Amino acid sequence: MYIKEIGKNEIRVAIPLTKGTEKTRIKKRSILNEYGIPVSTKVEPFTQSCYVEWQIGYDVVKADVQKLEKTTLKNFSFIGANGKEKTLYELSEYIKYFYDWDIVSKKELIDIRNYLFNLSNDNYLDVNPELSIKRTHPIHKTINNFNFMWTKVEYPLLVYKFDSYEIVAEIKITEKQYAIGVQPMLYLCFPITELENSKKLLGRTAKTKEFANFVINEKNIKVFLEMLKLFGTLSKNHNKDIISIIDVIIN
User: Fold this and answer.
1) Coil, helix or strand for 38?
2) Which of 52, 118, 165, 213 qualifies as a FRET site for 1, CA 20 to 30 Å off?
3) pLDDT per residue over 166-219, tens digit each?
C-alpha cells in the first residue's frame, strides 16, 4: 500500500489486488465471523463476498531506508517502545493529515491518549487470560498408517464492527514468531465494494499488478481514530508507541 494521491480533505491509498503480501490480501467469506479464505484474484472473479484484509501499520523505523520511502512524513520523530527512532506511517500518517486539516480535533486525540495512559497493565489483550491460545490434551491418532500425537489448537479471534460501516477490525492472537509469548495482530477488513470504482471489479478477475483505491475522507476517518485506540490496547509496547505518536501529532 502507498498513498497515491492527497486531495482536498481526502487521501487515496492504493491497495494491491493481485499479489498477496504480508500486509494485504484479498479473501472471501459468507458471514462476518467466518474465517476468510484467500482468493487467487487473477483466476477467480471478484464477488460480493470478497474483502480486503489489511494488516495496517502505524510507524516505520527511520534507519530502514527502504521502508522509510513508503511514508510521506519522514521528518517527524519519536522513540518507539523498542528503543528505535521512528516516524509516522500509514495509520498515524493519515490521522496527522486530517488533524492538520482540522477534521480530527486535538480533543479527540487527547481523549484517546488519556484513555490509553490510564489503561492498567492487566487490561492489555496480550495478557488477558480469556484470550489465551488453547491446546487440547494430546491423544494417539493413526492416519495413513502413521501414528501421530494429535492436539487441537484454538487461536482467539476478536471482531470489532465500526458503527454504520461495513468495515471491521480483526484481532488475531498468535504465538510470537521469534520469542516466547503471544502477540495480538490487528487487521482492518472491508468489502471490495468499499474500493473506489468497485463496480468495475465485480464479476471479473484482476489484471496483472492491478491496484484499486481506498478513499479515506471525513466520513470514515473516525474508523482510523478507533483503530489507533485499539492498537493501544494490544500490549504495553503498543500502548507506549501510540501515546508517543499522539504526542508527535498534537505537538
Assistant:
1) strand
2) 165
3) 889 999 999 887 767 789 999 999 999 999 988 889 999 999 889 999 999 999
Spans of all domains in the chain = 2-127+157-250
- Is the Cβ–Cβ distance between 45 and 26 less than 8 Å? no
Where does residue 181 fall: left (phi above 0), alpha (psi -120 to 50 degrees), or beta otherwise?
Answer: left
Helix axes 236-250, 106-117, angle to 10 degrees: 150
Task: Decide: 234 and 227 in contact? Cβ < 8 Å.
Answer: no
- If DSSP codes are grouped into helix, strand and coil, which group holds residue 1? coil
Q: Give residue-wise pLDDT tens across range 33-46.
A: 667 788 888 999 99
Q: Under 8 Å CB-to-CB from 233, ≥6 apart: which residues?
A: 116, 119, 123, 124, 125, 239
Question: Global pTM?
Answer: 0.90
Q: Cell 498513498 sits at which residue?
A: 3
Which residue is associated with the grid cell 521502508? 67
One-letter amino acid at 36 equals G
CB 177 within 8 A of CB 189: no
Residues paired with 190 in a beta bridge: 52
**Separation CA 33–CA 168 (nearest Å):** 10
Check: CB of residue 156 under 8 Å from CB of residue 128: no
Reading the block at residue 104, the C-alpha cell is 480530527
